[in-house]
Protein 1
Amino acid sequence: MPQKAVLGRGWDAMSALLALSEGIRRLLERIALISGWLLVIMACVTTFDVIARKFGMQLPYTKLQELEWHFHAAIFSLWMGYCYTINAHPRVDTFTEMMSYRRRAWIELTGCLVLALPYMALVAYYSLDFVAQSYRLGEQSDSTVGLTHRWIIKGIYAAGLWMVVLGILSVLLRVIVFLFGNKSREEVNLQIGTVIMDV
């Protein structure tokens, strides 16, 4: 087979990996941005809770408080995967900041394959039983006047863990394309190490 054809096929494979990575990232971004509207709802619930307490209204305050932390948990969970793809998670860059970008990419590849992906896949897998057990037991708040159907928030948290797995896969694919696909850092849009972002 001619060398050009082999190179072309390799280039197509790397382009496909990059497209898949970008597709995953866009999906996670869409979920994160849509779930951002939960902040508005949470702010309304919190404001209502504060005003109701101020004026001494007789309401089930336990339900309101639990609803507030459910919204917190949902927002956190639905943003975790996307945050991984844009490098917005905590990192310890002290040992890698003086390294070349290529060497940092090798460390990222090793970290994803050896640590992040196996650990998160295991936790995400067992989270399914965590939700199923909550559903079977009809789990609800410890408080008699608290919220019922606790499996819903646990399900959202479990979905968030699976989104982190997708986020790690997205980054892993970009690293592979950067290291083995002869594409520049800018083409791959690989965000590892210290990244300055506009917020």
Note: The chain has six helices and no strands.
Protein 2
Amino acid sequence: MTLVKVNNNGHRSLSQFVDEFFQGFPAKEESFGFPPVNIHETADAYHLELSAPGRSKEDFKLSLDNGQLTIGFEKKDETRTEEYKTIRKEFSFRTFKRSFNLDDRIDTTGIQAKYENGVLKLLLPKKEQVKETAKQIAIQ
């Protein structure tokens, strides 16, 4: 019987191998069809940032239905002419739709949105917390 020692030093784990394999693929925005989002929280609001460079703010659609915020983008088809011929096309603006469930702490009437420098920024203000004041209860 032969004993074989296995030395894993210097070998990559499966997760490292998979990470390295997928590094050469397109960014998540292109491969999954929707842009990445950052969500930040402050004392009075949530701030949602959606990375969508090169788009026009008129092509975004924001809607709120039953506590679900939906952000959509649909690029209108461009008219093509005979004198304008595409030689090479490496990117396109795909249609996407992302939805987020908002909880009861969000003041939906105060939601604001603006698009600047390729980032769609949403302000989701929190409702004011009504704090009950302490009171004395008389014993009868």
Note: The two ends are 91 Å apart (CA to CA).
Protein 3
Amino acid sequence: MSWTDAAGLAGVVMILVAYAGAALGHLDPKGFWSLLANFVGAGLILVSLLMANFNLSSTVMEGSWAVVALAGLVRLAILRRRG
């Protein structure tokens, strides 16, 4: 297994654990840890896609996933600064 495959699989595991945690009520889907896991996970999958196995639709999906998670993290940072 190449390092890019390992990175991509680690990203998949991170996203699935975050999703399962949210779906089962153990993790707040709008919370820091869930958003961070989704952002890092999508980033690792993007590394795998961009460095080794490019697939346009998967790249767009993971890029979008990362942007949404990052927007949530920025929102949390702004809310914490305000209050």
Note: The first helix runs from residue 3 to 23.
